[in-house]
Specification:
This protein has 226 residues and is an all-alpha fold. It has a two-stranded antiparallel ribbon. Strand 1 and strand 2 form a beta hairpin. Helix 1 packs across helix 2 and helix 5 packs across helix 6. The protein is globular.
Length: 226
């Protein structure tokens, strides 16, 4: 537990693991690394990763400078040792090191500096989007997480976070405060995935129909009237 910018104590329940959530709440770098790992694996697995990594490094926190300077092969081994930290431990180990090297070069290794002096939501989004491994969607989700659960709320933060910043939504990790909300977020993601798959299937069907129709119009083509 730590204190947010609003002066309130932070208690997270994202990883659904008390020790892992405690680390996320007090360590800006752990929160960033958890967000970086949050792809193609369950959210709880991703956000437990920083705690497991810190344990394997023999520490109670993550240090950007130490990770940046770590031997790449040895660091990858920390990820690949069973149980692996991610579905793709090798590539994610590289991404975490790239993130930490960027933080060392641009923010003197202080992860919280990424958002501490951001004047507006758009400014913060730009900073997050510049982080290695953070595309626009991931940057917006983390911005929403900062605003909703860490009290980091520069002017226009909800707008900059897009739909993830909406109050009362259950779209992402930013909205997870316990088992029930985790289930709601997971259900939303499954629905969104199913909708995207249906749209893709529909687009393929339309393209195939159009292609067939064009072929039928060509000389010698097979017309349904013949």
């Amino acid at each position: 537990m730590t204190t947010s910018d609003s002066g309130k104590d932070i208690t997270l329940r994202i990883a659904q693991n008390p020790e892992a959530d405690e680390l996320l709440g007090r360590s800006p770098l752990a929160a960033l690394v958890g967000m970086l790992l949050d792809q193609q694996v369950p959210m709880e697995w991703a956000f437990t990763g920083p705690y497991t990594l810190a344990e394997r490094m023999g520490s109670d926190d993550l240090d950007a400078g130490r990770i940046a300077a770590y031997d790449p092969d040895a660091f990858t081994e920390l990820f690949t040792t069973k149980p692996a930290l991610h579905r793709y431990p090798g590539s994610m180990a590289q991404r975490v090191q790239q993130l930490c090297r960027f933080l060392v070069a641009e923010y003197d290794g202080d992860a919280s500096a990424v958002w501490r002096s951001a004047a507006t939501g758009d400014d913060l989004l730009e900073r997050l989007n510049a982080l290695p491994g953070f595309g626009t969607q991931k940057a917006r989700i983390f911005l929403a997480l900062l605003g909703k659960q860490f009290g980091v709320r520069p002017t226009g933060w909800r707008e900059a976070a897009g739909p993830y910043g909406e109050a009362g939504s259950h779209r992402s990790v930013a909205d997870i405060t316990g088992p029930e909300s985790l289930a709601e977020v997971r259900a939303y993601k499954q629905e969104a995935k199913a909708a995207a798959k249906a749209t893709k299937t529909s687009a393929k069907t339309t393209a195939k129909t159009t292609k067939t129709a064009k072929a039928a119009k060509k000389p010698g083509g097979s017309s349904p009237d013949k």
